[in-house]
Amino acid sequence: MTDELAEAAKARLPRAVWDFAAGGAGAERTLAANRAAFDRVALVPRVLTGSVPDPATRLLGTGMTMPVAVAPVAYLRMYHPDGDLAVAAAARRAGIPFTAAMLGSHTIEEIRPDWFQLYWPRDRGLMLDLVRRAERAGCSALMVTVDMPVMARRDRDVRNRFTLPDGVTAANLVPDGRAREGSTVVAHTNTLFDPAVSWADLDWLRSRTALPIALKGVLDPRDAARAVAAGVDAVVVSNHGGRQLDGAVPAVDALPGVREAVGEHSQVLLDSGVRSGLDVVRALALGADGVLIGRPLVWALSVGGTDGAAHVLRSLRDELCEVLALTGCGTVGDARELATARM
Ligand SMILES: Cc1cc2nc3c(=O)[nH]c(=O)nc-3n(C[C@H](O)[C@H](O)[C@H](O)COP(=O)(O)O)c2cc1C
Predict the structure, then answer these.
(1) Which of 77, 231, 279, 337 has the maximal Cβ count within 10 Å?
(2) CB 78 within 8 A of CB 93
(3) 271 CB under 6 A from ligand 1?
(4) Is the CB of 117 within 6 Å of ligand 1?
(5) Of the candidates 238, 76, 220, which has an alpha carbon nearest to the alpha carbon of residue 143?
(6) Is 10 annotated as a binding-site member?
(7) What is the number of structural domains in the chain?
(8) 136 is in an annotated binding site
(9) Which CATH number covers residue 209?
(10) 141-150, 166-175, 206-215: which has the minimum mean pLDDT?
(11) How far apart are CA 100 and CA 106, in angstroms?
(12) How much is the pLDDT for 188?
């Protein structure tokens, strides 16, 4: 499903925009490894369980129709004029959470997302201001991304001298002029972000908001354990879709160790390479409570706006229910008990 969708998006988008979204860091080793790792995971189905699939679940306190949420993706208006609003509407239709990106191209107030993602700006006043705006806009959780101390070199963007298209800005940051059109994305990101964030900063943030916090970009079980001790409610096992450390471990391979480290003290989400209902069940079987979807929704948005994104989410749920049925699972909890093998 997503290969055809990706091809359709590629045909429609300007080459540099396609490259920015599809590409990864460096030689794109981790980008490729994310898919290869998923495809090595075989499921061991159960039989005679009498179960009927119902994938509804709850992540970060939010009820949803399936264990899938929309990953934060910056600058969605590059792909469709309705950008973040279109994908948020599709998520609402599908009954799953939309995570608005700090670098989103519509404001928190316009989107009123379920969850809001933050990076670490050097200016902590700005960060706190964004937290308060998210709270006022009714967000029910924060997702704090910690795998971008600096933005990785992405060869395609260097080659294309990639800059944001006219009219696309980091809308949440624009009124005080912190993000400008025309500069390369990497230049303005590295000016904005704090490269030296530490656990003390997480403590600082934890003490300043009552919202649940998910820490996104955790791959080492020791960091996962430390995050739980610091009071986070979930960790997101992610290598940023292969866009940060090239050579980072595939998220799927890191997942069992992270689950073991946090036990059931925290929820564990996963992203980076999820492309189908089968992948969702693979992630559950390896220890995830749920997954985030990134690029497939960018392609769907590019091709068909809200309807396109809603269609992809419907197909994903149909596939998920089929895989649950074929593995003898009724619920997300059943899928978490499935055994896996290598193939
Ligand atoms: C074009 C693009 C922009 C992204 N922007 C952000 C962002 O602003 N914040 C963030 O935490 N992650 C961002 N990500 C990473 C996604 O949240 C997610 O980790 C990744 O897309 C998952 O991998 P997948 O695309 O293979 O599903 C971005 C990913 C893409 C492809």
Answers:
(1) 279
(2) no
(3) yes
(4) yes
(5) 238
(6) no
(7) 1
(8) no
(9) 3.20.20.70
(10) 166-175
(11) 9
(12) 77
